[in-house]
Amino acid sequence: MSGEAAGGQTLSEIAQGPRSEAVVETAEAGAVKVVEKQAQRRIFKIIVIGDSNVGKTCLTYRFCLGKFPDKTEATIGVDFREKSVQVDTEHLKLQLWDTAGQERFRKSMVQHYYRNVHAVVFVYDMTKMSSFENMPAWIEECDRHNLNKNIPRILVGNKCDVMERIAVNTNLAQKFADSHNMPLFETSAKDDGRANHVDAIFMTVAHKLKNSKPMMPPHLADFVPGDTQRRDFVNLRGSPRHRGLQSASRGEEEKSDCPC
Ligand SMILES: Nc1nc2c(ncn2[C@@H]2O[C@H](COP(=O)(O)OP(=O)(O)OP(=O)(O)O)[C@@H](O)[C@H]2O)c(=O)[nH]1
Ligand SMILES: [Mg+2]
User: Fold this and answer.
1) Is the CB of 189 within 6 Å of ligand 1?
2) CA 214, 216, 220 angle in degrees (round to 5)?
3) Are strands 90-99 and 78-87 parallel, antiparallel or unpaired?
4) Rounded to whole angstroms, how far apart are CA atoms 60 and 62?
5) How far is ligand 2, taken at its centre, from the CA of residue 48, in Å?
6) What distance in angstroms lies between residue 158's CA and the mean position of ligand 1's atoms?
7) Which SMART domains match (predicted)?
8) Sign of CA dihedral 175, 177, 178, 180
9) How distant, in Å, are the alpha carbons of 125, 205, 239 from that of 74?
């Protein structure tokens, strides 16, 4: 007996027909599930703040891209970096807001930094006392923008690799951290041997966030006042539309093309 049946289908094809539809359905259902799962992934906005030149960009770059950047320039407005992490069984998306430390590059964006923030990472430079002494001012700025006092806050001393120039004593920093109920990390974005340490900072934040209540995910529309201004102040790293738009040399405070 030939295997050919009506409609040119073989018996085995007919036999397989419904099964292959089911396979398609299952595949589609699977795809839908994946999409749903991604849609459900909680997104957390973490702002990284501190004086200019303390290493905020390098720390976020190290965490998200796994290396120390070849070259950095003063951040204008804000740079975004995202990383998905797994905490227990849940995948979370961390949206890092690498803010500008220079007043002239941050003043127009400040109100947007502090909208719907889920956690704050305060960074100082261990080789520069003034960056540590300015920490209360950064905390005050958070308070002025009514940041919820219960969101996770972390204190990070960066550049511990420059051992001969350490200016901020660990005990002093620890006392300050304790008095503000923050964990303290001393680390280096530059030292490859401490890459895990940098990961630990953001994973500590992720663990704290995982246990917090679900919050409204931040959305680009929340902070972009208009497309023109977005080009001026917002830098979405990796997005072809925004790539390379923002950079500024340090020590050029009086540059006339300042967008602020
Ligand atoms: N030795 C050492 N240098 C670092 C480290 N992290 C950053 N740097 C250097 O410090 C300088 C400033 O780093 P950035 O990450 O651009 O500083 P920032 O805090 O983002 O500065 P703004 O964008 O102006 O607010 C750069 O020259 C970096 O190479 C570190 O861990 N160790
Ligand atoms: Mg920067």
Assistant:
1) yes
2) 140
3) antiparallel
4) 5
5) 9
6) 9
7) RAB, RAN, RAS, RHO
8) positive
9) 15, 25, 19
> What does residue 34 show for φ and ψ, rounded to 5 degrees?
-60, -45
CA 73, distance to chain mean position in Å, is 18
Ligand 1 within 6 A of CB of 53: yes
Asked casually if ipTM beats, i.e. exceeds, 0.95, the reply is yes
Extract the tokens encoding 120.
């704050």
Residue 43 CA, ligand 2 centroid: distance in Å: 22
In 2-147, DSSP assigns E strands to 42-49, 78-87, 90-99, 119-125
3 state SS for 96-149: EEEECCCHHHHCCCHHHHCCCCCEEEEEEECCCHHHHHCHHHHHHHHHHCCCCC
Nearest Cα residue to 152 out of 198, 116, 180, 118: 118
- The pTM assigned to this predicted structure is 0.76
**pLDDT by residue (tens digit) across 121-166?**
999 999 999 999 999 999 999 999 999 989 999 999 999 999 999 9
Which numbered atom of ligand 1 lies nearest the CA of 191? 31
Amino acid at 106: R
Among protein residues, the one whose CA lies closest to atom 28 of ligand 1: 55
- CA-to-CA distance for 255 and 99, rounded, in angstroms? 20
> What is the CA(52)–ligand 2 centre distance, in A?
7
